[in-house]
């Protein structure tokens, strides 16, 4: 569904629209660059943010860090904005009788109502920092497929260059089937958010990511890795690998170690390339969708105004209007029928008068 269509059918989107549609206009040279960090639980996403933050501080370019995980107990890096300071996750679960995932979704939805304040704080720091890092919940689907996740990502993209960083566990992806599952999830997130996308292959200090890059570039190498597996999952992975070939061509993938910091420079280079992609491809598309939404609003207002004018005219002409059904069937009796009805009524009165006179004459004196 297109952005302008979603904004019309989902009321919660008006939280974001009321802010960035009225006050914001994207400027390509604006900073900071916003990194939305996503990843499966256990992929090393938080460790990646910790190492990235540490490296940036060491180069005297401290990032602006926002924690969006309301369920985490501790954050192992300095945080500028923490969702836990705004929303009490356990209290949300208690008051709304929710489970863990439902509590995270509701907490994010509540936080999204205050996201305009987050934007203002990020804007204030735009002169002092080049990167704003958003660490999302470990339950990746909670952010990517919720209304609040879309509000946050699209609001950021309306203001700043925004890049999605998808962290995968390269150690667990040595199995071709597991690797294909990760790539399918990456593909779904890319087409859901429609923002520049970087795949970070984490934990290269344990297993090098060369095999994964080769599988992405060479179908025969991936086929060879599946040669000893004849299961349904393996056959499906072969078919999907051919299907994802076009997806792989434009996919930016880098290796990274959240322990040693290896791959830091390559990651920053990938971010620079993603920013260029954002300004050349996303911004024109955003302006097109924004124009479509404004046209839809104008048409809707014109339709409402026309209906209002018609209602005013109908009230001014006849005051209390009569149901058109009765207007169409108002001539129920012909003139002859009316005369017959009138004659019958006079005859009835005459008969009653005669009966009354007869009773009076027969009454005893």
TrEMBL record:
InterPro entries: Gpn, Gpn1/Npa3/XAB1, P-loop_NTPase. Its EC number is 3.6.5.-. One of its GO terms (molecular function) is GTP binding. It is an enzyme of class 3 (hydrolase). The keyword Metal-binding does not apply. Residues 344-354 have a biased composition (Basic and acidic residues). Residues 344-365 are annotated as: Disordered. The chain crosses the membrane at residues 12-38. The keyword Transcription regulation does not apply. It is found in: Cytoplasm; Nucleus. Small GTPase required for proper nuclear import of RNA polymerase II (RNAPII). May act at an RNAP assembly step prior to nuclear import. This is GPN-loop GTPase. It comes from Scapholeberis mucronata.
């Amino acid at each position: 569904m297109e952005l302008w269509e979603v904004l019309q059918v989902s009321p919660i989107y008006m939280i974001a629209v009321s802010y960035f549609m009225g006050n914001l206009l994207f400027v390509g040279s604006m900073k900071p660059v916003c990194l939305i960090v996503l990843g499966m639980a256990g992929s090393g996403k938080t460790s990646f943010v910790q190492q990235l933050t540490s490296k940036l501080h060491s180069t005297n370019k401290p990032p602006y860090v926002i924690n969006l995980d309301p369920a985490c107990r501790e954050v192992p890096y300095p945080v500028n904005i923490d969702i836990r300071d705004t929303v009490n996750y356990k209290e949300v679960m208690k008051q709304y009788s929710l489970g863990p995932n439902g509590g995270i979704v509701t907490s994010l939805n509540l936080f999204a109502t205050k996201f305009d304040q987050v934007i203002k704080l990020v804007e204030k720091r735009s002169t002092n920092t080049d990167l704003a890092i958003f660490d999302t919940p470990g339950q990746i689907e909670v952010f990517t497929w919720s209304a609040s996740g879309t509000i946050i990502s699209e609001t950021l993209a309306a203001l700043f260059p925004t890049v999605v960083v998808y962290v995968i566990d390269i150690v667990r992806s040595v199995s071709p089937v597991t690797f294909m599952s990760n790539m399918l999830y990456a593909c779904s997130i890319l087409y859901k958010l429609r923002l520049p996308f970087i795949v970070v292959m984490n934990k290269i200090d344990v297993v090098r990511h060369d095999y994964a890059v080769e599988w992405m570039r060479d179908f025969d190498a991936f086929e060879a890795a599946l040669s000893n597996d004849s299961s349904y999952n393996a056959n499906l992975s072969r078919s999907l690998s051919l299907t994802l070939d076009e997806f792989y061509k434009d996919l930016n993938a880098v290796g990274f170690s959240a322990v040693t910091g290896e791959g830091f420079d390559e990651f920053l280079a990938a971010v620079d390339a993603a920013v260029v992609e954002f300004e050349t491809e996303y911004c024109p598309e955003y302006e097109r969708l924004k124009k479509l939404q404004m046209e839809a609003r104008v048409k809707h207002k014109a339709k409402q105004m026309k209906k209002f004018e018609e209602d005013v005219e109908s009230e001014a002409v006849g005051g209390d209007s009569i149901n058109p059904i009765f207007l169409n069937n108002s001539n129920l009796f012909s003139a002859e029928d009316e005369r017959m009805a009138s004659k019958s009524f006079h005859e009835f009165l005459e008969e009653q008068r005669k009966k009354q006179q007869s009773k009076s004459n027969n009454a005893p004196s």
